[in-house]
Write a structure and sequence with these properties.
heterodimer; A: about 180 residues; alpha+beta; Arc Repressor Mutant, subunit A; Glutaredoxin; 7 helices; B: about 425 residues; alpha/beta; 5-stranded mixed β-sheet; 4-stranded parallel β-sheet; 19 helices; about 15% strand; binds flavin mononucleotide; binds iron/sulfur cluster; binds FE2/S2 (inorganic) cluster
Chain lengths: ~180, ~425
């Protein structure tokens, strides 16, 4: 039987963006583009980095796959497992804790019926805890995709859940676009 | 009226727009520098101003620039540290989001002084929406001839790019930042060699904080002496303080260095006092890494003198009774705060953020988190308190980069100043503050 094998390839617009980024670094230093390109790759792959996607990134930058894995596993913004459409990241560091981040986290847990690190069974939401988002003056703070939501209350949290539930969007769009 | 160098125009609508910024005198320092100064004269001016690095360490900026190796004709790099990840610190985001052109103007000055032809702004990945604001401002600067080839006909050319991080506090450490910019894990390098000799792509490199760089245009426009006239002692100029926690008015304030801490906390011009009529209990004055001080020691030094917001005054008393200005992340806690729980969040942070290269940091941060968890949950023993102090001692000074110290100091200082509270947790077998 003929085996279907779908090769990963960015569309021409994305490839153009990648090439523009590579040119920002000196010749022979194209590996420098790895973090920006991984952000793009993750957005092109439903918000997570599969081994196939990382291998593709390695070919784009002309580096070894291991060099990509090393980096992808080091930085907390890269997901190495499939995740929900909407990723809710709750800051839990001191200043946010002083201003009630535990209540916010508990609220999301109750409303979604999941713990940090888990995804709802319908695949809509993933809940995560993160460290200081550099917005402590407006604590408590959460991040959804490229958006910060500050001075969060349980009411605002409910509004956000309703919004993301009703809209058929995902939170991991290409951050450059 | 106190000097405002960084925030004077911050509320002008559309400030992120080139024309608006330019109308307010923006980019005039670049014109002045190209006309009147050689690169070394720019460095000399910055040296004379007394400006010290605003990223946390407070190292004199002009001196750092003068270490750059200009003897070879390999490229040199100027890199902006926009990693802003130190808990309690949220000042650089304010500049990047609302006044990106002032940062770009500073980048041009610094790059010119160092002879860099390509410069990078390394910005934490979570702040992609700020990166896009800066990239738009960079485009504007290119199209108006302030970036790119032969800027203003000076013969000097500069390319400026933004580079996103991937979520790692350690990449704020300058050698980890350089590794990260090269597309690698953020593992700090062993120093020496220092970046000024071997930095990005093995070339001479200076890394400076956003606030440091955004201060440069004012210094060039108004002169080093005018800058040095602001402040007190070896703490020259203004500093952004990001204030948070249990105060009435959290936010970002530009102070003249030397302002009394008491005025900063209680004046309506600044934090406005403690929320809900509560009592001040403790302050972490310079980002999560610096020693915590109880109310009496943050307001007055051990000698009974009023404590000032300056590098020297905050450090007065050393680690026995002092702290540090650090990044200016000013975290205020009222009397309802559990010091152990707050410390636990910091310990978890450092454990999470350790890059894992050095065993004292990799293992010690985990042990401290675990012990603090135990104490907070009511399962601790008196021996745990001494163990915390001992682990922090064994980390301090025994690691490749200062993250180890940064993890140790909050623990050591909390045990030193709030030992009773740890003991109460253990005696009660629960957190005395839990409902
Ligand atoms: C663990 C660690 C994290 C740091 N994070 C930052 C940061 O987020 N931003 C920053 O400007 N400096 C940070 N620094 C300080 C930098 O290493 C460096 O001293 C600074 O960028 C130099 O710039 P400056 O002289 O203008 O302050 C950090 C240092 C350490 C050890
Ligand atoms: S002190 Fe910690 S963060 Fe710094 S190099 Fe060592 S293990 Fe890494
Ligand atoms: S602690 Fe949450 S944004 Fe800083």
């Amino acid at each position: 039987m003929h085996e279907m094998h779908k090769e990963i390839e960015f569309n021409s617009e994305t490839l153009e963006l990648v090439n523009r980024i590579i040119k920002r670094y000196p010749e022979g230093r194209q590996k420098s583009a790895l973090l920006p390109v991984l952000h793009i790759a993750q957005s092109e792959n439903n918000g997570w980095l599969s081994a196939e996607m990382m291998d593709y990134v390695a070919t784009l930058l002309n580096i070894q796959p291991i060099e990509v894995y090393e980096v992808a596993t080091f930085y907390s913004m890269f997901n190495l497992q499939p995740i929900g459409n909407c990723v809710i990241e709750v800051c839990q560091t001191g200043p946010c804790w002083l201003n009630g981040s535990e209540e916010i986290l508990a609220h999301f847990q109750n409303r979604l019926g999941i713990k940090p690190g888990e995804t709802t069974t319908d695949g809509k939401f993933t809940l995560k805890t993160v460290e200081c988002l550099a917005a402590c003056g407006n604590a408590p703070v959460i991040q959804i995709g490229n958006e910060y939501h500050e001075n969060l209350t349980t009411r605002k949290a409910d509004e956000l859940l309703d919004k993301w539930r009703s809209e058929n969007k995902n939170s991991h769009a290409n951050p450059y676009l | 009226m106190a000097a405002q160098i960084l925030l004077n125009n911050i509320n002008v609508p559309g400030l992120a727009n080139f024309e608006v910024y330019r109308k307010l005198g923006g980019y005039s320092s670049v014109e002045k520098a190209f006309k009147n100064f050689t690169p070394d004269e720019v460095t000399a001016e910055v040296k004379k101003s007394g400006l010290r690095g605003r990223g946390g360490a407070g190292f004199p900026t002009g001196m750092k620039w003068s270490f750059i190796d200009k003897s070879k004709d390999n490229p040199r790099y100027f890199v902006c540290n926009f990693d802003e990840s130190e808990p309690g610190t949220f000042k650089d985001r304010h500049i990047g989001q609302l006044n990106p052109h002032q940062l770009i103007e500073g980048m041009i000055l610094g790059s010119f002084a160092l002879g860099a032809k390509t410069s990078y702004i390394y910005i934490r990945g979570e702040l992609f929406y700020v990166l896009k604001i800066i990239e738009k401002a960079i485009e504007e600067a290119y199209s108006r001839g302030f970036l790119g080839k032969d800027i203003l006909g000076s013969g000097y050319s500069l390319d400026l790019y933004c580079h996103p991080g991937g979520g790692a506090y350690i990449c704020g450490e300058e050698t980890a930042l350089i590794e990260s910019l090269e597309g690698k894990r953020g593992n700090p390098r062993i120093k020496p060699p220092f970046p000024a000799i071997v930095g990005l792509y093995d070339c001479p490199t200076v890394v400076n904080n956003v606030e440091t760089i955004a201060s440069l245009p004012w210094i060039l426009n108004n002169g080093a002496d005018a800058y040095a006239a602001i402040g007190v002692g070896n703490s020259k100029g203004t500093k952004l303080i990001s204030a948070c926690g249990h105060i009435k008015k959290p936010g970002i304030y530009e102070i003249e260095l030397g302002l009394p801490v008491e005025e900063f906390i209680y004046s309506d011009k600044f934090c406005g006092g403690i929320r809900n009529g509560n009592k001040l209990k403790a302050v972490v004055a310079g980002g999560s890494s610096v020693p915590i001080l109880p109310a009496e020691l943050i307001l007055k030094t051990a000698k009974g003198e009023p404590r000032l917001m300056s590098y020297e005054s905050l450090a007065d008393g050393g680690f026995e009774s002092g702290t540090m200005l650090g990044s200016g992340g000013f975290i205020v806690m009222d009397h309802t705060t559990c010091i152990v729980k707050n410390l636990l969040t910091f310990a978890r942070f450092y454990h999470h953020e350790s890059c894992g290269q050095c065993s004292p940091c990799r293992e010690g941060t985990g042990w401290m988190e675990k012990i603090l968890h135990r104490i907070e949950d009511g399962h601790g023993t008196m021996k745990d308190i001494d163990m915390l102090a001992s682990i922090s001692k064994h980390i301090e000074g025994n690691t490749i980069c200062p993250l180890g110290d940064a993890a140790a100091w909050p623990v050591a200082s909390a045990v030193r100043h709030f030992r009773q509270e740890f003991e109460d947790h253990i005696k009660l077998q629960k957190c005395p503050f839990s409902r």
